[in-house]
Model the fold of this input.
Amino acid sequence: MKAPKITSLLKNFHVIILIFFIFGCKNTVSYYDSEPACIVFFELTEGVMRDEMPINEINIKIRELEITSMKSSDEILVTSGRFIRAAEEAVANYYDYPTFMPLAYDDTYEHMEIHVESYLALKELTEACEKEGYPSKTKEIIKSDTESKNPESVDQENLIRENAKIPSIDSANDELMKFLKSKTWGFFGGTCDQWVNMDYDLKKQKSSFINESNDWKIVWDLKPDKFLGPKTLIYYINSETGSVSGDINNNQNSPISEGCDKW
Done:
């Protein structure tokens, strides 16, 4: 007659254990809040990108990020750790002002590896914050800064003579590509137009028509994910003849260009 009581006790014991695990595990789930770390991170990166944050404040923000990231998710904690190390290196090694962005090969060879690491860490932490619902404003900053510094309109066809051989920016760039295609890139059969298209973006908002010389000024900027070569390439295409000449500052004898930057 005691067997049913024992069975009943075992069932009750199992229920108690189950309840303990359900509520016990629920109470042991760690709570995290990534928002403070992401806010500090964005304040830091935006301040540096605008060249507005004093060096001592940059160091303070790095410490704030280190503290706030301790209460963040695992992904934010790990990615912020990488960024903090890279940011500290970037702040300790700079010419005029720290940067978390990669600069041109010829300008920053000494610190290029540091710049690349800080940029990659910045991208990684930005993506981690965005994944958790905290969007970055740095993309808008880069875009707005570019537009504010280069307000020239690309709609300048009214300055060109009706019978001009090269009547627009697009046709000027086409002429430029033909010219560069005739130039050899290195010793592997490539051409200079391939190098430009692979590593640079055409910037129509920076390009313009020079009325005094009847030249189109065509501007190509180094892509954000590229680190080697001149930061900017400028070419002049005569609207009457189609002749092409490169700006003297193109020629930086950059190894990646394999001679293409001399044009």
User: Anything to note?
Assistant: The first strand starts at residue 184 and ends at 185. The beta strands are 184-185, 190-191, 200-202, 208-210, 215-222, 232-238, 244-246.
